[in-house]
Amino acid sequence: MRASRLLSVLLLLQNRGRMTAEELAAELEVSVRTVYRDVEALSAAGVPVYADRGRTGGYQLVDGYRTRLTGLTEEEAQSLSLAGLPGAAAELGLGTVLAAAQLKLHAAMPAELRTGASKVSERFYLDVPGWHRGIESLPRLSELADAVWHTQRIKVRYERWGQRKVDRVLDPLGLILKAGNWYLAARCEGNDRTYRVSRIEELEDLGETFERPSGFDLVRYWRDWSEQFEKRMYPRVAVVRLNERARILLPFYLGAVGARALREADAEPDENGWLTMDLPVEPGEPAVGELLRFGGNLEVLEPPELRERLAEEIRKMGTRYG
Q1: What are the alphabetically sorted keywords of the record (predicted)?
Q2: pLDDT more than 70, % of the chain
Q3: What span, in angstroms and rounded, lies between the C-alpha atoms of 15 and 110?
Q4: 55 found inside a domain
Q5: Do 59 and 50 contact (CB within 8 A), yes or no?
Q6: All residues at 6 or more sequence positions from 256 whose CB lies less than 8 Å from its CB, including other chains
Q7: Which residues have a Cβ under 8 Å from the Cβ of 106 and sit 6 or more positions away?
Q8: Which residue among 183, 211, 234, 321 has the highest number of C-beta atoms inside a 10 angstrom radius?
Q9: Is 316 part of any domain?
Q10: How far apart are CA 8 and CA 101, in angstroms?
């Protein structure tokens, strides 16, 4: 552990130049006293690190000194696939591993490439969760990641919709991050299923491994599952008329479903700018709430029962506000 930290100190100084003991301590999440000891150990090992005193002082390497101890560990190499998702890496328990891998990668780059890589991180940032979303509690995520990686069979207590809790024995096959939410793809009683990680309340390692199903493709599984989930969420189609403002709002209100329906519309707006098209809608009351958001910019033509339900709700609102 200490050897890894000493290498991190060396690479930080090599990549960033002069750094204070406080800056090194914050970066490595250790005490300042530990930094002092680490720098002394590096000096004793022959690394040309020296300290400048004063307000603008700090530790730095002799000009021109570069280490070639930049080999990535297995975990660090794996973590690089999450380099654009530091929050996800931290949730999976790979935050410090990712930081070490990035340090080694930067140290191995030529100076001009290292400068370019730094500019990218200074100018672009990926923030995955949507607006107005609370942060889910994920106390089991790192344990799940470990079980997925080592093909460990697990037993979980899972809260299904309606607050009904069930116990399941799972063969965890993969983890998916979708719009800030984590999902687990797992095999249960011979069937591949999807579980929302935030609903897993208890997790037990059963102490046995399983054989990963031959040919299982996580990307294809998630794509197929998402498509089926979308069909379950939007099981029926309404015929609607939309003006230009409603067409602008459609992707914001209904997300990918609305955007796709708009792309697939096979008609053109009429002389007044209204477009008639098919629109997937949720069943029951959720459809009414979604469509009322458009106000007078959208009109439902079919099915008749949905049109009447909207008209009834609008009449109630007119009475209340009239």
Answers
A1: Transcription, Transcription regulation
A2: 75
A3: 11
A4: yes
A5: yes
A6: 230
A7: 11, 15, 114, 117, 118
A8: 234
A9: yes
A10: 10
Give the whole-angstrom CA distance, residue 90 versus residue 94.
5
Per-residue model confidence as pLDDT tens digits over 192-233: 999 998 899 999 999 999 999 988 999 899 999 988 888 788
How far apart CA 228 and CA 204 sit, in angstroms, is 30
| Helix 21-28 vs helix 32-44: crossing angle, to nearest 10 | 100
Residue 249 lies in a domain: yes
Three-state secondary structure readout of 106-151: HHHCCHHHHHHHHHHHHHCCCCCCCCCCCCCCCCCHHHHHHHHHCC
| Angstrom distance (rounded) from CA 282 to CA 285 | 8
- pTM score of the predicted model: 0.54
| Boundaries of domain holding 195 | 140-225
Q: Which of 207, 225, 243 is the last residue of a domain?
A: 225
Percentage of the chain modeled with pLDDT above 90: 34
Q: What pLDDT does 176 receive?
A: 85
